[in-house]
Amino acid sequence: MKKTIYIIGSGFSSLSASCYLAKAGYDVTIYEKNSSVGGRARQYIKDGFTFDIGPTWYWMPDVFERFFNDFNKKTSDYYELDRLDPAYQVYFSELESVIISGKLTEIYETFEKVEKGSSKHLKQFLDAAKYNYNAAIKDLVYRPGKSPLELITPKTISRVNQFFSTIRTMVRKKIKNKKLIQILEFPVLFLGAKPSNTPAFYNFMNYADFGLGTWHPKGGMYKVVEAMAALATSLGVKIETNANVERISVDENGKTTGLVINGKFKKANIVLSGADYHHSETLLPKRYRQYSEKYWNKKVFAPSSLLFYVGFSKKLQNVSHHTLFFDTDFDAHAVTIYDTPSWPEKPLFYASFPSITDKSLSPNGKEAATFLIPLAPGLDDTEEQREYYFNLIIERLEKLTNQNVRDAILFKKSYCVKDFINDYNSYKGNAYGLANILTQTAFLRPKIQSKKVKNLFFTGQLTVPGPGVPPSIISGKIVSDLIIKNT
User: Fold this and answer.
1) pTM for the complete prediction?
2) Pairing of the two strands 349-352 and 49-52
């Protein structure tokens, strides 16, 4: 008789785990509180415009390919990928930007133009980054985070000092130009931490950036969600939406017995939560929670975000599919996120204009845009603040790119701390989970297997391996392997 497993939430980690578990013979059902699958990677569609509500960057294509290959499938069976060229553009001041090519040879040339001799240092830096990428993404990140010994391999032992140095130190050793430094430090923002707090080993993100490139799934990132959901369904996974999990039931022997969903008890042998880890534990009686409120309060969280989804009546000029606006001080902004949580005076921001690449995402002659400002989790979030920051970034966008865009705004939708809490039960409204700093790496992250409740497991960006779409997909495989081994 098949063992029944219920999965809370339908984000990337949950969908990934469901596929592996169904393939292994489990009877799998996913319960999603919202009306559509995908967790934080949902869609917003309005007046012919399509927006990815969550992730907009497609990095580490090999991780996606490896996932589908595990089921004798390919990404191309489900969606079409375009490699972006340029990969992205970075603004530093009015009409002064650096364009990062989709070709590595051209990136070397760009660096050399900005700082003579820097291309040689960049090549050495990327050689080390590639080595670390192969060590991490092909091996380390697929380990369950149970022991510090997981980090000790022939590849890492010779470079153990990289865990005690930082990205910032490593980048600034030989590259001196401020613009180039910011470009090299930017990828670790995907790990949710400051370059000054992120171990140098994580420079493998730079290889993911320059070496493997930036991609776009035609139709948007939600196509990946649809692909994974289709694969899961084909393997026998059942997916129920509008299904709010109110309690994880535990018997007198400390073993999970199932879930209470929309007021009704449903019996299961195993429970896996892909929902926010902190929230998942609040669904348990206090004596069965592994981590206290004090524990969570001490953790360093990746940022939350203020997002705007905007429809423009015309095509925009002087921008790329991915455009970063680094015309203000990064360190001053970072202080407001990590040190003294507050609304930033002069925030950096990011904009995605996917309709530049993909005509299906906006009506002809119009532009779909997503704007993102990183923020400290837990901030007081009001409509007045949202409006203030929208006006601020639109004003800067116009000035930096030398064009009028305000008159072309057809509509806008905002999304911020309160929405992350309401839609995803996100702890303090964080957007990306726990930051990948040294004290929150691998075995030092919340455990994927409960020590207090038998047959209760966790997956997603608050546990191993960390924040981001590829790590979430990997997290689903890690936890499914553990479940198969232990139940």
Assistant:
1) 0.96
2) unpaired
